[in-house]
Amino acid sequence: xxxxxxxxxxxxxxxxxxxxxxxxxxxxxxxxxxxxxxxxxxxxxxxxxxxxxxxxxxxxxxxx
Length: 64
Known about the structure:
By secondary structure, this protein is α+β, with helices and mostly antiparallel strands. The protein has helices spanning about 20-25, 30-35, 55-60, and strands at about 15-20, 45, 50-55.
């Protein structure tokens, strides 16, 4: 049986999430968010000086 993940409407058509999005989803502070993203179990890419989280990878992980 396949598990479905509820993706809030705000994020449904996005390819990437930002650190700010992760902060909001998990209700973390800024420092904890960046600390967590260093070892996150989903795809995180650094583009310039910004972190981008692969949305598909994140929501697949979040749903498990």
